[in-house]
Structure formats: structure tokens, C-alpha cells
Amino acid sequence: MTHDPSAEPTDDLLRLEEIHGERALEWVQRENERSEALLLTPQLERLEAAALEVMDSDDKIPMVSKHGDHYYGFWRDAEHPRGLFRRTTWESWISDEPRWDVILDLDVLAEAEDVPWVWGGARMLRPRYTDGQWRRLLIGLSPDGGDARRYREFDLLQRRFVPEDEGGFDLPAAKTSVSWLDADTLLVGTDTGTGSLTTSSYPAQVRRLSRGQALAEAPILFEVPLDHIQAWAGRDHTPGFERTLAVDAIDFFRSVTYLFDEAVDGGPVPIDVPETVEVDIHRQWLLLRPQEPWAHEGAEYEPGTLLVAELDRFLDGERELTAVFAPDERTSLQGWSWTASHLVLQLLSDVSSEIRTLEPGTWRAEPMEGAGRHRSTAVWAVDDEDPQAGDDVWLSTSGFLTPTTIMRGTLEQSLPEPVKQAPSFFDASGLSVEQHWAVSADGTRIPYYQVGPADLPLDGRNPTLLSGYGGFEVSRTPGYSGVIGRSWLTRTVEASGSDDAAAPGRTGVHVIANIRGGGEYGPSWHRAALQSQRHRAYEDFAAVARDLHQRGVSSPSTLACAGGSNGGLLVGNMLTTYPELFAGISCGVPLLDMRRYTRLSAGTSWIAEYGDPDDPQQWEFLRTFSPYHLVEPGRQYPPVLFWTATSDDRVGPVQARKMAERMRRQGHERVWFHETLEGGHAGAGDNRQAARSHALSYDFMWRTVTGTL
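The chain above was modelled as a monomer; its predicted structure follows.
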């Protein structure tokens, strides 16, 4: 019998969906005070200080990107909590003490304008459009850390925002996409009133905005139906390959890419491939990556295959494709980038990075050294348009116990050599990284990483933290975190509240589960947990938890789990469906109410991932992983902390609010809630806020596994 959505009980907590409503914010304040009374202890303050020391460290690698002769980057530290946008030269950057030219101090700007600005990136205008210098850029600023950003034109030579009365571009805060068309024209997707936004809250139109023109008067260049996710358009300024492109993002996994035939009538010409095939265009090349099995011209291509063709020939009707990468049961394509004369592929083989370089035309693949087992490695061009450095690449690599190393080299001339090494923020001696496999309910083997003492006693009394994500083809890969190292891996149990809690003298174990729904094994691994198959992701995570118990790493009294966003939905389902496996749960910026998620913030954009609750047949499976509807009075649940941010305009704070209040009303007392004002979906607008949020979560979980909460 099909479930009738209209038969759902009345949701008496809708008032908490009024994000800035007076009664809702009064509730938030009361809950914050209750949580802080329990959690803000001298122990937590020490943890927060240790995390902040890592985040504010002057010894972090100052990452940069090259534009002309300068290397630009954004930086935060203790003296500049909101951050500095700055630049330097190559010779200075590789020195021990680079000399920085500060372009914009956000702390000074925030104080002068009385707005707590959060950095939102910069869009540079090519120098050939001005006077031959890198002079103009659009700076994105979020007023509260959310996805909505204000874009303002900035003059690098005069070191000031260009005033509107001098013709400067200034786009009001919104979920905006923007691209330079030329020195006096922008391509802008933003909120201009009725019909300009999709039901997902993103731009439905892209306008061609001329300098001095009002947004509402700018002509519409490209438009998509309101039930699609977003319209986007941008200009490719690559010399010799200038072109305007647009994308109709139908949902998270379907899209259509268009080229504007400017030589004919200016109209958009679609790239003729299925909507489930990803499209990338670089110079003369067209790259295609199918999300589903694709039968094309008598050939069958598996999901995750990378195919290439010459763009002009493809547009002329030729359909011959060359497969430059084909996945197997162990190896998947995670991404690619271009240098002046090479295509670089980033792969995962059983969740360890591999790098391959290919020469266009022959497409012969060569492995690149520098990746390594149980490491995460990324490679990208330094500046593929630089005549002298067009084949130079950055290589960034790190592991759970190995801080990040940045290398630079020239393809086919020199191996990448280290140029910057991040410091160690915790003592990793005696710790080891192991990869294990759990068996899920349907027999699928699920990999997971275990980081902890090499001589770990297997008696179930180790303080263990399990984290995961399992959605949107996002992969959880090895990576160094000084904050996790200090707050969990090297923290020692001083006291236990019961005989079955974590044993005194033990240090923490951190486990990362590579469950289905993620991208560790490509699109097929992701699609195995879509919509009606969502339960597989949760079964995978529970299988890892059980495997940890069976191996003696942990027990239900010593295992906590944590997740944020889609990972918050994951651990929300651990709370309501597998509560017997965990001692405590930290649930951040989460989806939890799958009946109303499409009506909140950007929720409709995720229908392709989860399903449509307004379709009765789809609600039948959605309700089976909707924690807000699964929680029951009288059932035993582990302690849980819900944390979120008022300014989160992606998921929003209201689902966490409602879940916490529903559980409390059902009589569950071990429920805590904390909401920050700033920070958006990240939950923090600066390092101090991030350190506080991290400390709240990790100290809460530590106290649950030691039985001292």
C-alpha cells in the first residue's frame, strides 16, 4: 500500500523554520546556553586553543596562484582573523620569509564598513583588456559567511574599490555567478526579482551587464526552466580559443553545455551528448565523462570513462571518440587538468592517489612519481599560458600522518621538487595508518582507513571516532589535519566513567569510511546509493562500525561518529537506525527532515540525489531515511550534539533545530544543540569560530566515549 504524504502528522515545529524569527532565535539562545553550560569547560578551552594555534600558525603553507609575474593568495592568522588578500613574487615566495604586498585587509574593511565580511574569492580580468597590466578584478565578499556574496570591482594599481559613480561594478549580495566578458562587460547570474531564481535558489538567468547599466535593464543572454538547478555562462579567454559557454544544470548529475555561435547569430549551440555525460572544453579539445553506461557509435563506455575528441570536428558532425582512461574495479578518475602541452589525470586506486600524464594526439599515459600509497595527491598547472612555464605543475601531497608538501616541476623536463613543507602539529611517532575492509549487508566490500597507535590493544576500549560522507560522488581521501591530530589522535584518556568506557592511558583512533554514495570508485560507486538505494550508504557505515567492534578496536561504548551536511544525514540515520553501535554522535549542518528538505534553502537541488518527497512513491523510500520521522519516544539513543549556523543558506539551520526540539519533546534528555550566527555552511566565519566549533564537537565525542558526559 502506498503511503499518503497527507497522512503525515502535523509538524508543530514549523516556527523554528523562521530562520530569523524572534521566537526561533529566542529558542536558539536558550539551547546555546544549555549546551554551553555543559560543554564550555577548561578542558574544552585548552582544546580550542590548541586548534586555533594550528589554524593561525604562521608556518602554514601560504598557497598561491600565478597571474603574470605575481603569485596571489588569501591568508588568515591571529593578527588578521578575517584575512589578507596579498601577492608576492616567485623568488620571494620560495624564501623562508616571503615579502608580501597586501592588496586588501578584510579586518580593516570590516571595521570601516561595519560588516563582518568573509572572503569569497576574486575574478581577475586579463591584462589584454586594459593597459597590459593585471589591474582589475571582481572581489567576492559574504556578509555572514553564507553562499550569498557581494561582488565589487577593485583596482590593483589604485588599491581601492572602483566607486559606482565612476562606473565601477557592484553587485548586491546574492547567490551570484559572474564572469568578465571584456573590460566593460560582465556575464551575471543573480537575483533580479521574480523569475530570476530557480526553485533551488540559484540563478535561472544570465544577463549581459554593461558598465553603468542597471542589472534589471541588462539583456538576458541565457535562461533555464525554474525547476532546473542553475543557469551559468562564462567567457573562455584562452588566447586563440576565445569562446562564450553556457551550462544548463538540470540537476546534480544532468546538464547541457552550450557554445555561442558568435560568428553566425549569437545563439547557443548545444554539445550533442546525453545529459548524463559531463562536458569539458579546453582549447581545441572536447572531453566527455559519462555518469551512466553510454552506447555510442557501436561502442560501450563504462561510467567514469574519460573520452576525448577534437571540438571542431565534433561540432561538424564527426563522432569518433578516443578513450584516454577506462576505470576498473580498483581505479577511478577523480579529476583532470591541462598544462600547455599535456593532460594530467588524477586517479584513485583503492583510495590512494595515482597521477598520469598524457600527450594530446598520441594520448600515451605515463605515471608521475610523487603520489604514494595511502596519500592524497593533486597536480595542476602553474600557468599554462606562460611561454616559459606553460608545462610547469604544482604537486601537493599529504597523508594522515604526513604534513602537506608542495612541489613544482616541468613535465618531461624535471621531476617535481619540494618547494614548501608544512610543519608537523602533533607527534606522530608510534602512530600508523592501516586500510581495512568491512563487508556490507549485500556483500559489498567497503574500504576504511584506521589511524591510531601501531600497537593498538584489541580489547574494545580505545576511544574511536568514525567519520564518513557517502554522497554526491565526493571522495574521502587521506589528508593531514593538525587539528584532528591534537584533538583526537594524541589525546590521552585521563578518566573513564564506567568499566566498559575507553581505558585510561589510551589515545584516540580515527577511522574514515569510504562508503557508497561517494566517488572513491567512480560514478557507479556513487549511483549504487542513490534515492531508493540510499540505505546502502548507511548499511556500509554500520558495517564499518561493526567491523571495528568485531576486530576489538572499539565497542558500542567507545565508538563515536561524526558527519556534516550530507554526512549529517548519514550520522542522523546512525542515531535513529543504528543507535546500538555508538556511544555518541556529532551531527553538523545536517539534512534531517526529508519530508520538507526541498522547501528549505537549496533543498530542491538535491532531488536527484535523494528523491522527491512530493511524489508519493518516492516518499515511500525517503521516509525510511528521514531521521526527523524515524526518531521515537521511549527508544534509547546515544548522546547527540546538533551544531549549525544561522547564516547557512545552503542546508539551513532549521532541520537541526527541529530535530533537537522533537527529540527533547519526546523525552530524550541527552540531546544538545549549538548554533553560531556566522560562517554559512562551513559553520565558521573565521579561525576562532572554526576552532570553537571543532572543540565543541570533538570534546563532546571524547566525553561520550570515555563515559564522562
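The first strand starts at residue 65 and ends at 67.
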